[in-house]
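hey team, just a heads up i'm posting the complex here instead of the shared drive bc the drive is being weird again. everything in one block, sequence lines first with there labels, then the predicted structure for the whole assembly after. its two chains so it's a bit long, scroll down
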Amino acid sequence: MTHGPRRYVLSAGLLALALAGAGAAQSARTDVDVTALSNELSVRRALNGVRRTESDTIREQIRICEVPAPPFGEAPRARLYANAMREVGLANVRIDAAGNVLGERRGRAQRPHLVLSAHLDTVFPADTTVKVRREGAVLRGPGIGDDCRGLAVILAVARAMRDTGVQTEGSITFVGTVGEEGLGDLRGVKALFHETLKGKVDRFISVDGDGYSLTNVGVGSRRYRVTYRGPGGHSYDDFGRASPVSALGLSVAAISRIEVPATPRTTRNVGRVGGGTSINAIPGDAWMEIDLRSSDEDALSNLDAKVKAAIQEALEVENGRRKRDDPLILMVEPVGNRPAGRTAVATPMVRTAAAVLKTLGLPARFDEGSTDANLPMSIGIPSLTVGGGGSGRDAHSPRESFDTTDSWKGTQMVTLLAIALAR
Amino acid sequence: MTHGPRRYVLSAGLLALALAGAGAAQSARTDVDVTALSNELSVRRALNGVRRTESDTIREQIRICEVPAPPFGEAPRARLYANAMREVGLANVRIDAAGNVLGERRGRAQRPHLVLSAHLDTVFPADTTVKVRREGAVLRGPGIGDDCRGLAVILAVARAMRDTGVQTEGSITFVGTVGEEGLGDLRGVKALFHETLKGKVDRFISVDGDGYSLTNVGVGSRRYRVTYRGPGGHSYDDFGRASPVSALGLSVAAISRIEVPATPRTTRNVGRVGGGTSINAIPGDAWMEIDLRSSDEDALSNLDAKVKAAIQEALEVENGRRKRDDPLILMVEPVGNRPAGRTAVATPMVRTAAAVLKTLGLPARFDEGSTDANLPMSIGIPSLTVGGGGSGRDAHSPRESFDTTDSWKGTQMVTLLAIALAR
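-- predicted structure starts here --
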């Protein structure tokens, strides 16, 4: 997962809005009286059960994490995870064409249909040591929070629901997705919504990483690799030829001048540049990698268009002022496309989630990020990404750690949320 | 050697100027009647001798070339070359502190003192295969023309002068220099003129590469490695921090807009750029390598000042518009400094050289380049770089070749020029 820094605690007014109706008569059929729900016997048993068996959940978190799941290499962990789904009693366990693992828990009806998901993949290359070390309450290992935590938590939810006979109106499909991180470009969740479960999902929860925040804003991104190419030549003999590095410079300079709105937060970054072979040669090529982000799809499209115009204009300027020989050519290769989206605070799903947190005595902290939930948000399916409890550090670093202190609260939160959303 | 494309054949008027007095009564004591000189018995013998023994010269060219002389690793070839100097009868053969090889041929007096030089170093790394192949008249091997040819030719001159008893008024020091190429930055010839032979040289000829052209314009250069460095960070979370890549882009764009004169030819090149570690990280650093050149020292200094101002201004602009955190820092590291210089066509030395070509039936073709002669030119010592005859291809490439057809003409040219300039 990639969180933004835009965490915000719900203000009193917003909280009132989010909670309106949550404990009162239901104005929308998707609103649930969470307090009452949490007092039902089977639900209370499930919540007590996940607290009592949190040490099993943590062991499962470690076991999953010690099977590598590098980008585009999730299959070994997927096989382990499918077996784990069978062990907790899920039905119709399968791996889809994209590599996502799915397992079902039927309710009284097929709908409403909740997908409860976590992602299999890590950011770490195949040769990373994935052994997990325990130091008191702290687990250390690559991916231990992001997202072995989510994978273990949703298994715990399935186990608790089976063991306590919780009844739900709708059904839940538990999913381990591939390709959430980086160049994975959400390919698992894209396949899930566009193919495997197309048209069949009403709500989506991704449990991703640590903590208790609710990610209701999906930061979208567009990524490009841009290359200018030309004949190159000798710095002195061939002076006057178009230079790919000059075009790159013009375009980076122009991109750096593009104004972006602070709200909705929108950013641009030229993350890597390169080009040329020798100090005394006109470069034959120059390239850059660009990352554009926004919490708003229109703002992102607008920035995207300006950046592309700047890239094209730099080509024309450099070609226009060359004194000799062939013009430069330009290649713009998309290397990432994550749609932006949001699930408004005033929707039943967010109201329910806020009520779950309140019922469990946790603060309602909202966040924005770039997660699997971006995709369903962008096509109008109510979606949230939630933390799995505990507290993590150094995600996306080999030093990653996860502090299990009170992490059962996260398992409880996801359990109650899943039951509420499947009602 | 690095030649420019600015070759020009001397026009009739310029040629007349260059030749004025060459065949007539001497108006300057450094002018020599080359035609008369070439008819002196010992000189005629020497010229015939180098023609007759050209095959020995070519064998020597191959033998030298099969001892590697990578940048900063010329010592093995230097030792071979010192022995070769002893074999052709030079006196006081030695290797100076910089690694240059020197050997002397005293005339009747110490002055005028001519240095006849070629460079030991190649552009090829230490592990390059240096075996030379012969295919008919063509030799193939890295450095075979640039500058094994020059090294062999000046040895042939020494041998011919010894064998034919040519008398000269002044003395000649034969030199194999280190560090002519690339990052060698003329360190051999700098040491020669600033230390080893400081104040003792009246004229300088470098025999560098193939052909018959006279390089009387020394293209100067300044080279820099420029680095912007900052805190880096996450492309979305830390947006608003100063970006080293943005500063680099601004500075490349500004440098690409600097107007440079066509005459004296002046050029700028950003040859390599790099920076950043990940598409979604604000780069921690960004760097470029810049090559500035001119045939005129003032034009070069002027360009140099503008480029430095652009680099500094880009720093200030990017730091000025940052919204948060630490400013960027800037490092500008000089990695090359070759002074520009020229030996005017109307000087006795150039007139003599033009007369030598005319006497031997060769066209007087002038050139500019960046060679060992830059250094003495820049401190006012009459200097030329001349070709060693034959015709070369693909210098600075492992495919380099040298066609020996009529290459004896080059050996003759250098022989006659050396005798004329030591008179």
